[in-house]
Design a protein that fits this description.
This protein is of the alpha+beta class. The chain contains 17 helices and 28 strands. It comes from Bugula neritina. InterPro entries: CEP76, CEP76-C2, CEP76_C, CEPT76/DRC7_peptidase-like_dom.
Length: 678
């Protein structure tokens, strides 16, 4: 039987106490559901008991059945019951009895969460329009079917959903992979215009919010390896045409890249507008979508016409330009061709990353992964959206370069993505920053965070001096671009060594007009929204300790298999922290740091006549089992682990340095000290 909200228009309860009640009349039973922000279970149970008792006293069950059987409208029943509740003073008594005024005041005085990260359900605010997205279940999921059975004691593979909408991001809890994964989650999305989150949007305002909800599905293997399974966009505005303000739908999650036409599963979900607004006719929504599609199609058409003419002019300058790596469009996760400039946008990250070099380190920790096609065909090129890239924590070199360029632009640097080649003429992407005064040029390698100072050996194409041996790995340069500009290299040689980065010189660089680029890269274009970065998912201290304990156990088992006993030296393990901290600082700054103190500590701690050996290594994941399997392939590390002698003591230290999102630098040092026996 129909379920309806009796207390929808009760502002005292809705606006001030953030409680909403639903009374359901089904099979002659009244069920009461309370959704509230207060975690106190005793308060919740008390509220349920008190309200059920009161509804029983006023015989709400009989009144509902009689009203519905007699054809009475829902509005009439609601008004009658609301009137009785208000006159009885029951709501005031309930609030006083359970001290909800104090609970509310306490909640309001608590500090707000981090300005970057959105909580999965921060609380309904009835002074603003919001969209509640409830995922009920998943079904017909297939990406896990070829996985090996999970071994006893190992973690099972999991699915995680990531959502992005108008500057808000959400992450579901990881659930075990199965045909019907338990993906039950609720996400509360703010509906706002132009960043004004305090305005109560009316239905006409909501109609103009054309941004879609980006839903990304990521699979995580037991060894912490992640896989981008699906990247789907959901147009939520159909709910505006539903009288109840609630719509249940099923969306088909499609694969990515060359598999974007293949279904990987189905999500059942419900969309709800809170609080309800006026109803929008389906004809009006249909016309609005047609208008938006026509505008986007016209922008795309005009830009395509412009780029074709621009390309013809570029090839006419010099026939050899046809072999240079000048790329105007790139295919995304869903096989949609987008202008390369649209993959870059200034990105500020609050207090998550404090300087450009730290940003470069963060990007370098995201795993480099080349998308591949099935069979012996060449690798499949795919430029993932920024949201997909950071959610999966892996991607191709172009994704790394685009993210690093976006972060450097956010720090106010004059940054561009470079497309060219490196050794063996393989395509590559990196970032260049150009100084505003002296025109100093710095190359940033997004896969390693290395920086290279570029000093041109030519001016206006004239060789000044013989080029020095290049320290950077780049060979040729085809073009540079960011969100506002695109320049193709028209210098006599495309060798990076001779490249002059005077981008304003039309005899060296052919540019696109700013108007053409802004037509497809303006903030009004849906794909230009850059999702904010979130805080790390890791707790450094807890994770470091747990990994170290697990590694000690695995070392003991490994040595036992070799017929060796194991004794750990806690002081030596603690001492190794200095070296690991110095290594991470060096990766960020490029400067040696703290090595003298570590050398002095080793000299002072290791007894005379003893030998000290150590093996440091860094991983971009935090998985002890996977790390140990990797180090066993190193001859140097196995020599440390299989150490023999008199008074042998081993040490292991793990230092986890978390960055934004899932990026992490895990440093591990294995060490031993022993007295040699001649």
């Amino acid at each position: 039987m129909e379920k309806f909200n009796l207390f929808y228009n009760l502002p005292k309860l809705y606006y001030h106490y953030n409680i909403f009640f639903f009374v359901a009349c089904e099979k002659n039973l009244v069920e009461l559901f309370i959704a509230m922000e207060y975690p106190n279970e005793a308060v919740q149970n008390g509220l349920r008991t008190a309200i059920r008792s009161y509804l029983s006293q006023i015989d709400v069950d009989t009144r509902l059945q009689n009203a519905l059987a007699g054809g009475t409208t829902k509005a009439s029943v609601e008004n009658e019951l609301l009137g009785d509740l208000e006159q009885s003073g029951f709501i005031d008594e309930l609030i006083d009895e359970f001290n909800l005024n104090n609970v509310t005041k306490k909640r309001k005085s608590e500090p707000a969460p981090h300005t970057i990260e959105q909580q999965a359900h921060p609380g309904i605010n009835y002074m603003r329009r919001q969209l509640l997205l409830q995922i009920h279940k998943g079904k017909a999921f297939t990406s896990h079917l070829l996985d090996q059975p999970t071994l006893p004691g190992h973690t099972a593979p999991t699915y995680t959903l990531h959502l992005s909408f108008r500057g808000q991001r959400f992450r579901s809890r990881p659930v075990a992979c199965s045909d019907e994964p338990d993906l039950r989650e609720s996400f509360l999305l703010e509906l706002h215009l132009n960043g004004n989150r305090d305005a109560m949007l009316e239905v006409t305002d909501l109609l103009s919010v054309a941004d879609k909800i980006h839903i990304v599905l990521v699979k995580t293997d037991p060894n912490s390896e992640t896989h981008l399974v699906s990247s789907q966009y959901l147009d939520w505005r159909d709910v505006l045409c539903i009288p109840t303000g609630k719509k249940t739908i099923s969306i088909e999650m499609m694969g990515v890249g060359t598999e974007s036409s293949i279904s990987v599963g189905i999500l059942d979900l419900t969309l709800s507008i809170i609080p309800q607004c006026d109803i929008l006719s389906e004809e009006v929504l249909s016309e609005q979508r047609k208008l938006e599609r026509s505008r986007q199609a016209e922008r795309d058409r005009l830009f395509l016409v412009y780029t074709k003419q621009w390309w013809r002019e570029y090839l006419q300058i010099r026939p050899s330009h046809s072999s240079r790596l000048v790329k105007l469009y790139a295919s995304d996760d869903n096989q949609v061709n987008r202008p390369v400039c649209s993959y870059v946008q200034p990105l500020r990250c609050g207090r998550l990353l404090e300087n450009p070099r730290q940003a470069a380190r963060f990007v370098s920790l995201i795993k480099y992964d080349k998308p591949s096609a099935v069979g012996n065909s060449e690798r499949s090129e795919r430029w993932s959206s920024l949201h997909s890239f950071i959610a999966a924590n892996k991607g191709d070199v172009e994704n790394h370069a685009a993210l690093l360029c976006s972060l450097l632009l956010g720090f106010g640097l004059n940054a561009y993505v470079c497309l060219g080649t490196k050794a063996k003429s393989s395509p590559h992407a990196w970032v260049v920053t150009i100084g505003p005064d002296d025109g100093s040029v710095t190359f940033w390698e997004s896969l390693s965070a290395n920086r290279y100072i570029h000093k041109p050996t030519t001016v206006n194409g004239i060789l000044l001096k013989p080029p020095p041996a290049s320290k950077h790995p780049y060979r040729t340069l085809g073009c540079v671009f960011n969100h506002k500009a695109f320049y193709a290299n028209i210098q006599t040689s495309d060798d990076v060594t001779f490249a002059d980065f005077d981008l304003g010189n039309t005899s060296l660089w052919k540019s696109m007009t700013a108007e053409a680029i802004s037509s497809v890269c303006s903030p009004t274009v849906s794909w230009m929204e850059m999702p904010p970065l979130q805080r790390s998912v890791y707790d450094a201290t807890t994770l470091s300790n747990s990994m170290e304990i697990e590694l000690r156990r695995m070392i003991s088992e490994y040595r036992e298999g070799e017929g060796l006993t194991t004794v750990f030296d806690d002081q030596c393990s603690y001492m190794l922290s200095m070296a690991l901290s110095a290594y991470e600082t060096e990766r960020i700054t490029g400067q040696h740091y703290g090595n003298e103190e570590f050398s002095q500590s080793v000299t002072h701690t290791i007894p005379e006549g003893h030998t000290f050996k150590a093996y440091p290594i860094q991983f971009s994941y935090a998985n002890a089992r996977r790390s140990f399997a990797s180090v066993l392939r190193s001859k140097t590390c196995t020599e440390v682990l299989q150490c023999r002698g008199d008074n042998v003591k081993l040490a292991v230290r793990v230092c986890v340095y978390p960055y934004a999102e899932s990026a992490v630098a895990t440093w591990i040092m294995f060490a031993c000290k022993y007295q040699s026996i001649m």
